Amino acid sequence: MSPANDHYAYYPGCSIRSTSKAYEQSTMKVVESLGMTFQEVEDWNCCGATEYFSINSLPAYSLVARNLSLAAEQGASDLVAPCSACFLNLHKTDKYMGKYKDLNEDVNQALAAGNLGYEPGSLQIRHLLDVIVEDIGFDTIAEKTEKPLWGLRVAPYYGCLIVRPDSKYNPEYPTHLDELLRVLGATVVDFPLKTHCCGGHMTQISDETAYELIRRLLHNADEYQADAIATICPMCQMNLDVFQPQVNRMFKTDFDIPILYFTQLMGLAFGISEKELGFGSEVVSANAALKKIADEAPEKAKKARRDKKALPMPESLP
Amino acid sequence: MTEEKVGVYVCHCGHNIAGTVDVEDVAEWAAGMPNVAISRDYKFMCSSLGQELVEEDVKEYGLTRIVVAACSPHMHEPTFRRACERAGLNPYLFEMANIREHASWVHTDDINAATEKAKAIVGGSIRRVMELEPLEPFIAEINEPTLVVGGGIAGINTALEIANAGHPVYMVEREPSIGGHMAQLDKTFPTLDCSACILTPKMFDVGNHPNITLMTYSEVEQVDGYVGNFTVRVRKKARKIITDLCTGCGDCWSRCPAKVVDDVYEAGLGYRTAIYRPFPQAVPKYPVIDVDTCIYYEKGTCKACQKFCPTDAIDFDQEDEIVVLNVGNIVLATGYKLFDARKVPQYGYGRLANVFTSMEFERMVNASGPTGGKVLLRDGVTEPQTVGIIHCVGSRDRSYNQYCSNTCCMAALKFAHLVKERTGAEIYNFYIDIRTPSKNYEEFYHRILEEGAHLIRGRAAEVTDAARLPGEEGKLIIQAEDTLIGKQRRIPVDMVVLMAAMEPYDDAVEVSHRFGIGCSEAGFFTEKHPKLDPVATMTDGVFIAGACAGPKDIPESVEQGAAAAARVLTLIGQGEIEIEPIRATIDEDRCSGCRICNNLCPYSAIEFVEDLGVSRVNPALCKGCGTCVAACPSQVIEGQHFTFDSIMAQIEGVLYDRMEDTERVTYLGSQPAEAK
Amino acid sequence: MQDNSRGSSFYKRVIEATPGGEALSLCLQCGTCGGSCPSGPDMDATPRRLFAMIAANMEDEVLGCNTPWYCVSCYYCTVRCPQEIPVTDLMYTLKRMAIARGRYHKDAHVTFSSNFVDLVEKNGRSFELGVMTRTMLASHPIASALKASGYGLSMMQKGRVSLTPEHIENMPQLTAILDEAKHIASQKE
Fold first, then answer.
1. Residue C166 above 70 pLDDT?
2. Which of A80, A219, B132, C172 has minimal Cβ neighbours within 10 Å of its Cβ?
3. Last residue of a domain, one of B502, B526, B555
4. Which residues of A touch B (CB under 8 A)?
5. Which ranges of B87-139 does DSSP label H, i.e. alpha helix?
6. Do C42 and A283 touch (CB under 8 A)?
7. Is B448 an interface residue toward C (CB < 8 Å)?
8. Partner-chain contact C161 A54, CB within 8 Å
């Protein structure tokens, strides 16, 4: 369980260096306080997002594979990406190179032109959330929690790409972020749309389609009276946060839900200052939500007595 | 050996072989092999004319050994062995060369290659047949009693057929009562007969039949022996009830304070007590104490049942009992389990209260079920106004089960009818294809259409409680593509029923090993022949019936139960059976006593003789599989009919065309005949 | 003339251009993909219908559909497909084919994608501001600039827009890799 300090190669991705600096700021603070060391992949390049794959397939895989090759050269066993889209592209390229022989040969031939090469499977490609939940574990996180997020109602938002198309987590109803937030002391609301789409790049194609997807998520979180939505991806954060005023205008709604990186919430609970965690860069301000964090744990809802008439409810899968 | 005369017959099998293999060329080529006295090709060797051809040639040419090159020995080896016998030849001096599955069917694109391969296969068989020795079959007597495992509708029918014919039957059932899944149902399609009304008389008959020994709450632990002579070890789990004293009055369970969800009979929709009888018509009538939920076993006090029992029939110290049975035949009718719908997270079962499984719904509409037959939401009060029924849950899906579960379309249509009848609600069935291929099934489908159910052709994509559009608040929304329109639709409903697939039990593979039969990867038991021998297995004397062999509805299970009984009755009627004499023998003078073979034998047929320090094969248990033969480090175990010499000869025969003449002299010890 | 054979042409090319594309032949037309799609209501034809059209070799009609351009890459269709057809990957294939044929739907954001790719090929990193301005200028400069001014401004104020592109150090290496990849791809066509 204890993380070896040097076995994580770290792939930041482009967004975290421009639109989502708060994510990296808070990630670095949290990682540091958990005693982990991330070694940035030297001279990494863009993962191609969703765009490169729609233009040209083999160059797109080769673009991603250069990062895999560089990371593997650094001697890491695990490659960590905080961005869901980067994670997907890195993970999928590694998987597909392992699964499809022709693709593997072609990509390696392309890499060879830059004196690189990559043996599929030599890296474990992982998302930041997975590393924190699996390698650090809830017990350690609970120990680190100095200022529990008592009273804060949070909707856990996973988005698509860390659970689909291929992951060890439930692709429709994962619960590891729920559990993490609960350990931090937050009140986790049910969020049926937790793995639905944030709109991805649709904001660049069709406002109507994109804003409707964003509206659904905000509406659902609002229905469950969430004070904030916790996210694990720069793209999800940007779509729900930056376009929230646009959505309100288009649908005549008045959503006011801050969209926070899960690492920001971890940092808060660990007692790190708001400033160090990059608060203030969100378009929909988190101030009101943060004020709701109480000094005392909320009273536990009393277990409802079984209604004599009610039929038994099946247990959910463990 | 040179005086041996081999007859070779190459079958066209219509176009099956002759379409790809040049059969005349093969026959002509075979005629050139040493010792071949006659070589012919013929359209259908398995026809009576084909068989007579062999018989006549044996007489006319004095043939001493026969090779038929045709299909797999699976089907017709017995046919030609009998023909040899009729002609006065020992049937084990016959060899079948499979040039259909092994050549013509797999090389349809290359006639030359297929023909060359067929020659090699035939060459191998010709050399092999020369090495075979005459064998005499063993005769095994058939013990009269039969073991039926599983007390569902298939097993019940098997047991009654055999018992009514006057033969003893042991029925072993895992649950406290027989009846199986059929006992849980309310109505049966397409006639809408009351399930209990047609089942309980049969259950009663089983319980009271003078020829049937019923062992419920029992499981088979071990099976030894072979057709006619099986020894079966059964564990009778402790009921904690002295059945000789119990009258089934019910004073015990009505006083029991421990209420638990009944996951078996009530499919999780209702409760039972720790001491319980699964349902009022249970056979036998005695309750059992479930020690996992009984307060006494947890805390050491309570004993309410014992206090109130008027006949002192409760025995908390009762222990499991082991019973050993000797039976001649075994019928497995172990049934199915319902697919766990929680595995399909997008349908929300286990999370969304008003999503039900098909079996929960069966209990709900059953007059003796938890709601007394009323269709109600999980609150136990509200009647739904709209109900969605989702087909193919856990079936026709490579993530779970690729197969079609066969019964769910009709059950879903039945549900549509019952909901309509009891509530008048609007009904939406979401289907990929509607499959109703049985007597009066299609008519039933039309009746449901007439009653106004909405049938939407599109597999439900998801069930959600996240309202998006007006009218969706507080509802469950089924989202699907209506493929006949080509548009995505969202249908708000109050209740969703998931038509979960029929699956083998989790321990089906283990059970198949215990009884020495095959099963599919999923765990359905494998029939000897899917068309012509659907209730037999590759193990003589072990038969299968009902849903343990694949998803089946009640009529099909009943048919199979009766069919299995007929097969058993045939064997009992014969009184004895010939068993293939193909066995392993150990040369005890050369056996080093290393005992490697002892543990490898899958049939536990090898025993170690302590005083002599050698291993010995029990011919009654040996199935001639050859595992020990291959494993013996001293090479002193020989498989009859598959001797080293016969296998080496077969290899030489396969390579015959590739050998130089000098090699043929060396290896085959004879000059080749002049090629024609 | 419509080519109805499955052995040739469009159907076969779609499969060949997609890793795992052979599964397309298994489509049951159940509609799980179209039912699951978050932007399904805005598509001309659902993925399911598109697959039937591909099987019928209706190349022009398929490539003219807006369907792949409305795919948000959420992979719901892919994980739910009972026949394990890589639906999302097939959408990427159709986009690439449409671009190559120059037959894409009017809503296609080809300029956005190609601007993105251009900048990545130039710098090795993406550059949001660059992509957006280039895309807007190429389409409806005034309308889209007005629309974007709302969120653009707020991002600017929050310090979330980089004014200059980042770039990697070993650009020649990346260029060599991408050139080689393009070369291999062009030889296979």
1. yes
2. C172
3. B502
4. 170-173, 192-193, 216, 219-220, 223, 307, 309-317
5. 111-131
6. no
7. no
8. no
Among B119, B137, B155, the domain boundary falls at B137
B97 sits in which H/E element? strand B94-98
Phi, psi of B14 (to 5 degrees): 60, -125
Confidence class of residue C151 from pLDDT cuts 50, 70 and 90? Answer: confident
CA–CA distance, B45 with B484 (Å, rounded to integer)? 52
- Note whether B412 and B526 are same-domain residues: no
Tell me the shortest Cα–Cα distance from C56 to chain A, in angstroms.
24
Say whether C185 and A200 touch across the interface (CB within 8 A).
Answer: no
CB contacts, 8 Å: A63 with chain C? 120, 174, 177-178
Residue B244 lies in a domain: no
- The pLDDT tens digits for C167-177 are 999 999 999 99
Give the list of residues 6+ apart from residue B56 with CB closer than 8 angstroms, or none.
Answer: none
Q: Are strands B36-42 and B6-11 parallel, antiparallel or unpaired?
A: parallel
Based on the domain organization, do B349 and B484 belong to the same domain? Answer: yes
**CA geometry: angle at B320 spanning B319 and B321, to 5°?**
115
Look at residues C108, C17, C179 and name the one whose alpha carbon lies nearest to residue A57: C17
Classify domain A145-291 by CATH architecture: 3-Layer(aba) Sandwich (3.40)
- H/E segment holding residue B271: strand B270-273
**Residue A254 identity:** D
Among A residues 96-115, those touching chain C with beta carbons less than 8 Å apart: 96, 99-100, 103, 106-107, 109-115
CA-nearest residue to A236 within chain C is: C74
Q: Which of B81, B202, B68, B171 is nearest to B135 (CA)?
A: B81
Which of C26, C28, C36, C76 would best serve as a mutation to test chain B binding (most B beta carbons within 10 A)?
C36
Domain ranges of chain A: 3-127, 145-291
Q: Report the SS3 class of residue A126.
A: strand
Measure the CA–CA gap between B327 and B568, rounded to whole angstroms. 11
Handedness of CA B573, B575, B579, B584 (dihedral sign): positive
Residues B417 and B432 in one domain: yes
Q: Is residue B242 situated within a structural domain? A: no
Inter-chain CB proximity C184 and A109 less than 8 Å: yes
Q: How many CB atoms within 10 Å of residue B139?
A: 10
Q: Which residues have C-beta within 8 Å of that of residue A286, sequence separation ≥ 6?
A: A228, A258, A260, A279
Strands, E assignment, chain A: 8-10, 38-40, 78-81, 124-127, 153-156, 187-188, 228-231, 259-261
pLDDT tens readout for residues B581-634: 899 999 999 999 999 999 898 888 899 999 999 999 988 778 888 999 999 999
ipTM attached to this prediction: 0.93
What pLDDT does B1 receive?
46
Query: With bands split at pLDDT 50, 70 and 90, how would you rate the model's confidence at B674?
Result: very low
Q: List subunits contacting chain A, requiring 3 or more Cβ pairs under 8 Å.
A: B, C
Which residue range is the domain that position B558 belongs to? 146-237+324-336+504-576
Confidence of residue C189 (pLDDT cuts 50, 70, 90): low
Of A260, A216, A209, A105, nearest to B469 by C-alpha is A216
Any idea which architecture A3-127 has in CATH? Up-down Bundle (1.20)
Q: Is the CB of C35 less than 8 angstroms away from the CB of B346?
A: no
pLDDT score at B675 = 40
Among B342, B344, B347, B364, most A C-beta atoms within 10 A, so best to mutate, is: B342
Is residue B345 domain-shared with residue B491, that is, in the same domain?
yes
Mean pLDDT of chain B: 95
- State residue A301's pLDDT score: 74
Contacts (Cβ under 8 Å, ≥6 apart) of B311: B245, B246, B247
How many distinct structural domains can be found in chain B? 5
- Diameter over CA atoms, chain C: 58
